[in-house]
């Protein structure tokens, strides 16, 4: 996991709920290849998965990911390999699901006004610096703490815990 993400911005408004991110009618899908096809399919960009490139960035207004606690909403964004999600604010459960799956979710007040669809955005997770490379506009977000960076660098909380358990096993087995 890099500490800097850079990609094309795709904008979404306020109160984008989990059914807009990943409609409930698809929850029975189990293969990531099937899940990823429906990323944002309930939103104003229903075909996002057809042109979204790995590393591109979602920029949203307030309360991104509100609604149900289904992990599928974050899973579908991981499936399209989102570089980061920048939002004015997040639904609490969605935010934690995103981080736990290894998706950088960055809260930045005023970001929606600084970025247009198609702009190139660069985010430094450890300093919180955000630069719109297209316009030169800058913003400052809360930097990610070491624990969150650890989760992201390991690809999610489950891989991080597995790694910690393996390291502990190797350490205790070697003594």
Automatic annotation (TrEMBL):
Q: Which UniProt keywords apply?
A: Amino-acid biosynthesis, Branched-chain amino acid biosynthesis, Leucine biosynthesis, Lyase
| Keyword tRNA processing annotated | no
One GO MF term on file is:
3-isopropylmalate dehydratase activity
Catalytic reaction(s) noted? (2R,3S)-3-isopropylmalate = (2S)-2-isopropylmalate
What GO terms describe the biological role, i.e. biological process, of this protein? Answer: L-leucine biosynthetic process
Question: Sorted alphabetically, which Gene3D superfamilies does this protein's record hold?
Answer: Aconitase, domain 4
Which family is it part of?
Belongs to the LeuD family. LeuD type 2 subfamily.
Share what the entry says about its subunit structure, partners included.
Answer: Heterodimer of LeuC and LeuD.
Protein's UniProt name: 3-isopropylmalate dehydratase small subunit
């Amino acid at each position: 996991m890099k500490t800097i993400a850079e990609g094309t911005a795709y904008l979404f408004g306020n109160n984008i709920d989990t059914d807009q991110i990943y409609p409930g009618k698809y929850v029975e899908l189990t293969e990531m290849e099937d899940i990823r096809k429906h990323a944002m399919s309930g939103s104003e960009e229903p075909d996002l998965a057809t042109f979204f490139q790995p590393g591109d960035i979602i920029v949203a207004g307030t309360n991104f990911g509100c609604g149900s606690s289904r992990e599928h909403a974050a899973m579908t964004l991981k499936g399209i390999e989102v570089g980061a999600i920048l939002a004015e604010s997040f639904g609490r459960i969605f935010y934690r699901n995103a981080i736990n799956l290894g998706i950088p979710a960055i809260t930045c007040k005023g970001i929606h006004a600084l970025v247009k669809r198609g702009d190139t955005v660069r985010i430094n997770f450890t300093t919180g610096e955000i630069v719109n490379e297209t316009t030169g506009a800058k913003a400052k977000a809360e930097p990610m703490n070491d624990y969150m960076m650890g989760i992201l660098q390991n690809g999610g909380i489950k891989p991080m815990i597995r790694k910690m358990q393996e390291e502990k096993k190797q350490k205790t087995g070697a003594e």
